[in-house]
Design goal:
By secondary structure, this protein is an alpha/beta fold. Helices cover 44% and strands 14% of the residues. It has three domains: 10-74, no CATH class; 88-138, no CATH class; 154-331, 2-Layer Sandwich (Nucleotidyltransferase, domain 5).
Length: 332
Amino acid sequence: MARARLTLNPENASIKELKEAARVGSSETATRCMAIQMLLAGAERQLVCDALVVTDRAVRNWMRLFNHSGVDGIIVNKRPGRTAIIRGEQAAELSSLIEHPEKADRTFWTAKAFHGHISDTYQVECSYETVVRFFHREGFAIKAPQPWPDRQDESLREKFIQTLERLHHDEAIDLWFADESGFEGDPRPRRRWDKNGDHLRMNVIGMVCPRTGEFFAIEASHSDTDTFQAFLDEASKAIHFQRTHNILVLDNASWHKQKKTDWHAWEPLYLPPYSPDFNPIERIWLLMKARWFNNHVCKNVDQLIDRLDKAILDIISNPKQTQITAAIGTLF
């Protein structure tokens, strides 16, 4: 039997995200990101292998990792390199300074600002490139606000809206909209250096019914097939369905499209690619972040979880407001 053709899910990450990961990661990470970028741009796998001098088996493995976990799946931890200029007790002190910029009366660091600070304050004579390598070695990476996707197929979007309008007016059907969103312990949007994989962040997986204003959500450290299934399992226990047919609208992330998924009472309906503006739960996330995380900084994971608990309970406890926030009538 012929082996199934392996393809990438382009909604797991944008080209911009892949370029950012390549720039701040190891050389091996950069190679993996370049391979995925080329494939997403339409290059044949053999061309990628020839251009990057890698095996087809390696490329296929990177594709599987990307489809399973997005950019996180293809990032490689850096291996030890040459002896560092900044090392020992001084390295530990400077690493602590990066994690706690308030010690230098700052709210965050850029590599340029940090380079100038340690040159003036610690008399460390090194190049800007050395500082960037030090950031990488200590496990920090660039964090930057992500742009709203704009690669949309207008014909698919128009057909989807027609379908959505028909379902919306069917009195036997309830529409539910699901999505994941990341919440930062320090959500102030700016480009800065932060601990790679160690900064305060939690995911919230939620769903909302615009007709009733009912909202359900769980908190998770990450999103994948297992956490999404756990979300569906818990939602099916907590929600009392009012109509006979329930449709769950969601995006095309790989973990939303696994054959083994148990959808319980829901039937999945997938958004057109790059169309988060058709998902009203996006407005719920914006409301939660504006109301509960604007100018609020959590210093540890317990504070972040406690804040998220209150934000989620606020939405659940106010279904009338949620009806207004998540209304979909304006889409038609």
